[in-house]
Fold this sequence. Notes:
The chain is an alpha+beta fold and 204 residues long.
Amino acid sequence: MRRPTYRLAAAVLSAGTLAGxxxxxxxxxxxxxxxxxxxxxxxSTAAATSVxxxxxIPERHGTISPTATRAGKALAAAAGQPTPRLALARxxxxxxxxxxxxxxRTQRRLAxxxxxxxxxxxxxxxxxxxxxxxxxxxxVANTGRVISVARGQGAAAGQWVIVTSEKTTGNGDYQGLxxxxxxxxxxxxxxxxxxVVSEWEPRT
Length: 204
C-alpha cells in the first residue's frame, strides 16, 4: 500500500524483497537505519491516456468516450466518485491501511476501484502477497491518513499529488519506526460512474 518507507508496490516479491504498500525489506538496511522507501516502476506521463486536471476532449459537453464506457464496466459497483479529490482520498485511505493478513485483500479491493496501470499494479501486488509469510512472521501493519490532495505544480504539473502520513509497525526491525510523510503522484479517468484512479505512483 502506499508507503512509509514501505508500501504495496506492483513488484513481485522475491526472497528478502518487499515492495509497495509502504513495505520495504528492513533486513536490507545497515546500521539499523530505517529502510529506504521502495518505488514502483515509473509510469510514462507522456504515454498516459488518463485524465488529471480536466475532462478529456471526448468527455466534455456531457459525453463519455466508448473506450471509457467499456472500461467502466469492469469496475466494482460505486467505484467512481463525483470528484477527483474524493476518488484519490478514498484510494489513498485504503492503500495506506492494512495488516499482514489483509494486505492481499486490500490490493484486490484497490484493483476493483481502479483502471489502467493502477489496476495492473494492484492485481500483481495481490498475487505477490497472497502467500507471503515474511509479513505474517513480523506481524507487519501499516496505518495512514491523508494530509492533502492537490493538483501538481512545477515538475508535477499534469499530475495529482497526494501527501499521506503513515506509520508501519511490527516485530523485529519493524518495531519502533516513526511515522513519515509520503508523496504519491496519480492520474484519473472519468467513467460513467464517476472519477476512477488510473495511475498511482509513490514517489517518497
